[in-house]
Design goal:
Number of domains: 4
Distance between the termini: 62 Å
Strand content: 5-15%
Helix content: 40-55%
CATH superfamily of the largest domain: Histidine kinase-like ATPase, C-terminal domain
Largest sheet: 5 strands, antiparallel
Order of helices and strands: HHHEEHEEEHHHHHEHEEHEE
CATH architecture of the largest domain: 2-Layer Sandwich
CATH topology of the largest domain: Heat Shock Protein 90
């Protein structure tokens, strides 16, 4: 049981489940980074930042109830200017730097501007940006005029300026001056670490992480469940392939896998089935070849035994009978023994030619047929007229035609007692025509025959998709014509 669990954990299913969990974790982390970089600025510089700007404006308005003296540099001296960054203070307001010199950047800074009732700038925290005596309408990003009053105009909002986006607010002193406060407001991507530090300062880190933390806790069981469901069918198909490969390794080539899809595993199943079929066919062909080789070797052994034993005895018997006939010319028994031994020796020679398998030896079909015809002439004294064209045919056709010729010649000599044969082979109209004619005793093609020679010839020709024609009759020889289609 433990081994099975270990194999499952380290197997394909376990790896898929781990990959699902890791991918989900990566997505959650990426979303968290995007939230910190894109949404936190909205949170930090949104409603809460607007409240800080409003509180800062009210604080400066309360600090100068009689109005801000002209030329006063507002803000906190010694506070460093941080363009494009919000500087919250501990009391819930913003730290406004007093910038007496030029502003060191082309980005927006936190600033306070006092505006008179007539719409001119009285004082500011950055005189270089908002010089006193200038019209507030031309200097500030919001239109401030002497006609403004609380409740009659929008007193807060966001603007896009030449120095970037700002969030602003207005408050009024008892003397009627307007206090304008602005601070940079970023809606783009910021450093997630910076956003996190700002969230920690605002106390919002726990709220932001509650949702992702719950999601992270749910990832493991959900990933395991999803991995099991998604990988179940794939793992089953792969295990079936594994079992099939083990069966093939044990020598079972009859395995056939159904193609369960058009994906990579489905194509692998189809290729595996094609491979087992090819292996099975190759094994069957090898077994058939081995059987054929064994049969040929056995026939060659029998031929050697017959030649070395029976043929020699028949030859000796014929020599003794011939001697007896010469010593006593009138001895009819000696003549009969000599004639019978000659016929038996001749039949034995024909049988030896049939037992010894003809071979192509890489020389081609035409030379092999010529050699066979020469053997019948040299060993049996049979006249063979050979007219064989040098044709090129596939190897199976070559072997079949050679065996058919050997069988036909052996039948003509052994059973038809033919003393003359004619062998011809031509190619025409996509066919090879092989003809074997003899001058023997002939036979009735429709009559049943004890031998299997003609049946073997018909079987071989049928395997090649050809036709067999036999023309014979008792007393007038036989003609065998075979036509085989070739590419």
């Amino acid at each position: 049981m433990l081994d099975r669990v270990r194999r499952r954990a380290w197997g394909l299913s376990g790896r898929l489940i781990a990959s699902y969990i890791l991918v989900t974790l990566a997505v959650v982390v990426l979303v968290e980074v995007l939230v910190l970089g894109l949404q936190v600025p909205l949170l930090v510089n949104g409603t809460q930042l607007q409240a800080q700007v409003n509180s800062t404006a009210k604080t400066y308005a309360a600090r100068y109830p009689g109005g801000v003296p002209a030329g006063t540099v507002l803000g906190q001296r010694g506070q460093p200017a941080k363009p494009a960054l919000v500087q919250p203070a501990e009391d819930g307001t913003l730290a406004v730097p007093a910038i007496t010199g030029p502003v060191p950047s082309d980005q927006a800074v936190t600033a306070v501007v006092a505006i008179a009732a007539d719409g001119t700038v009285v004082a500011s925290s950055a005189p270089a940006l908002y010089p006193p005596g200038r019209s507030a309408t031309s200097e500030l990003p919001v239109p401030v005029t002497s006609q403004m009053a609380i409740g009659q105009i929008v007193k807060s909002g966001t603007l896009s300026t030449s120095r970037g986006s700002v969030l602003w607010d207005l408050a009024w002193t008892e003397s009627g001056q307007a206090i304008y406060v602005q601070t940079p407001w970023s809606t783009g991507f910021i450093n997630p670490l910076t956003a996190w530090s700002e969230l920690v300062q605002l106390g919002e880190a726990r709220a932001l992480l509650s949702g992702p933390s719950a999601l992270l806790l749910a990832i493991v069981p959900v990933g395991v469940l999803f991995g099991l469901v998604a990988s179940r069918r794939l793992v089953r198909r792969v295990r079936r392939l594994e079992e099939a490969t083990l069966a093939v390794a044990d020598g079972d080539y009859s395995i056939r896998l159904p193609s369960s899809g058009r994906d990579e595993v489905g194509r692998l199943e189809a290729n595996f089935t094609a491979m087992t079929r090819q292996l099975s066919s190759a094994l069957a062909a090898e077994r058939q070849r081995a059987t054929s080789d064994a049969r040929a070797a056995e026939r060659a052994r029998i031929a050697r035994e017959i030649h070395d034993a029976i043929s020699q005895h028949l030859f000796g018997l014929r020599m003794i009978a011939a001697g007896m006939r010469r010593a006593d010319p009138g001895n009819q028994q000696a003549r009969a023994i000599e004639r019978i031994s000659e016929e038996a020796l001749r039949d034995m020679q024909a049988l030896l030619l049939e037992l010894r398998p003809a071979s192509l030896d890489g020389a081609g079909l035409a030379p092999a047929l010529q050699e066979m015809c020469a053997s019948y002439h040299d060993r049996l004294g049979v006249t063979v007229d050979a007219s064989v064209d040098d044709v090129t045919v596939p190897a199976p056709v070559e072997h079949a035609l050679l065996r058919i010729t050997q069988e036909a010649c052996a039948n003509a000599v052994r059973h038809g007692h033919a003393r003359r044969l004619a062998v011809s082979m031509t190619r025409q109209d996509g066919h090879v025509e092989l003809a074997v004619r003899d001058t023997g005793t002939g036979f009735d093609p429709d009559a049943p025959h004890a031998g299997s020679g003609l049946a073997h010839i018909r079987d071989r020709v049928a395997e090649l998709g050809g036709t067999v024609d036999i023309d014979s009759a008792p007393g007038r020889g036989a003609a065998l014509t075979v036509r085989v289609p070739v590419p």
